[in-house]
Specification:
This protein is an alpha/beta fold. The protein has helices at about 30-40, 55-65, 90-105, 140-145, 145-155, 170-180, 200-205, 235-245, 250-260, 270-275, 285-295, 305-310, 315-320; strands spanning about 5, 10-15, 20, 45, 75-80, 110-115, 120-125, 125, 165, 185-190, 210-215, 260-265. The chain is globular, with a radius of gyration of 19 Å. Bound molecules: adenosine-2'-5'-diphosphate (A2P).
Length: about 325
């Protein structure tokens, strides 16, 4: 998996990144997965405050580098993200310092605003949850994220992050951001897989020198679409994989890389961590066959209203419901 891309500021980013969102969340699992991924050859880790395991990622990087003196810190691309309750200027600055401490690093390669939603904090360690069980939305900062972005720019200028960007942003949000940004976002990390190809948003990003990154590139296995079919159960996709003697995950990762963006598979299973990292060649015909499966699909697993009490994608959500 030697593919890499260049961000608009010239920074090189490995095309396959290892997702560290712990499914089980049990202590030690992230450490085991991260050290196994690094030993397998992954040189890109995708982290976040929200995953509550940056400590374990940091220990994993630290121990791996100690065991492998020929690999240097600068050989590993580390991304992390600021959560919704830390969007105020000072809190964003606090968040990057907090993540750096936990990751045992003095800079990250990429720092992202995790969602285009600002929420109230209980403390810096904890989002505030309202009596309805949902996040307490900060309307002003959600509608105008300029102070948040100014803090991101400060972090970039101070060299605490070699690149900055956003995650889960729509075209509408990016248009607004590009109007006031002095440092343009280098990345937009979004959900992309054949049931949510996100073509329009991906094209918008390319047109504005923003590199897309695909999370849940295998189709968010744990979520069952309303249609009842998971990406992993699609017969056409499975036939493509079987015919070439590959796993479906390998086909989906190759499809994303060929479409020109970063893919972030995650697994806590050693054999799958390894097989996901083996690059395969996807023929033109197979590439087109995956595109054909993706055509017209628009299934998004996260229900924003349920999660945050705020609809991030009103127009797209409507399109998805009516599709
Ligand atoms: P596991 O950790 O047991 O391997 P997503 O990032 O799309 O939401 O999906 C992540 C899920 O996909 C994880 O739960 C992971 O489970 C599973 N997964 C990762 N790699 C593979 C693979 N090669 N084949 C099947 N499932 C996989």
């Amino acid at each position: 998996a030697g593919t890499s891309f260049k961000l608009s500021n010239g920074v090189t980013i490995p095309g396959v990144g290892f997702g560290t969102f712990a499914n089980e969340g049990s202590k030690g699992e992230t450490y085991k997965a991260v050290t196994h991924a690094l030993r397998t050859g992954y040189r890109h880790l995708d982290c976040a405050w929200f995953y509550l395991n940056e400590d374990e990622v940091g220990e994993g990087i630290h121990d791996f580098l100690k065991e492998n003196p020929s690999v240097k810190r600068e050989d590993i691309f580390v991304c992390t993200k600021v959560w919704n309750h830390l969007h105020r200027y000072e809190d964003v600055l606090w968040s990057v310092e907090n993540s750096l401490k936990r990751l045992k690093l003095d800079y990250v390669d990429l720092f992202l605003v995790h969602w285009p939603i600002a929420a109230e904090k209980e403390t810096q360690e904890k989002p505030k949850i309202g009596s309805d069980g949902k996040y307490v939305i900060l309307k002003d900062l959600t509608e105008n994220p300029e102070p948040t972005w100014r803090a991101m720019e400060k972090i970039y200028e101070d060299g605490k992050a070699r690149a900055i960007g956003v995650s889960n942003w729509t075209i509408h949000g990016l248009e607004q951001l590009l109007q006031f940004a002095k440092v343009q976002p280098h990345v937009n990390q979004i959900e992309i897989h054949p049931f949510l190809p996100n073509n329009e948003l991906v094209q918008y990003c390319f047109a504005h020198n923003i590199l897309p990154e695909a999370y849940s590139p295998l189709g968010s296995q744990n979520q069952v679409p309303t249609t009842g079919e998971r990406v992993s159960e699609n017969p056409t996709l499975n036939a493509i994989a079987q015919k070439g003697g590959n796993t479906l995950a390998q086909v989906l990762i190759a499809w994303g890389l060929r479409r020109g963006y970063v893919v972030l598979p995650k697994s806590s299973n050693p054999a799958r961590i390894e097989s996901n990292f083996k690059s395969i060649t996807l023929s033109d015909a197979d590439f087109e066959a995956v595109n054909a499966v993706a055509e017209g699909r628009h299934f998004r697993f996260v229900n924003m209203k349920d999660t945050f009490g705020h609809d991030v994608w009103p127009e797209e959500a409507r399109a998805a419901i009516s599709a």
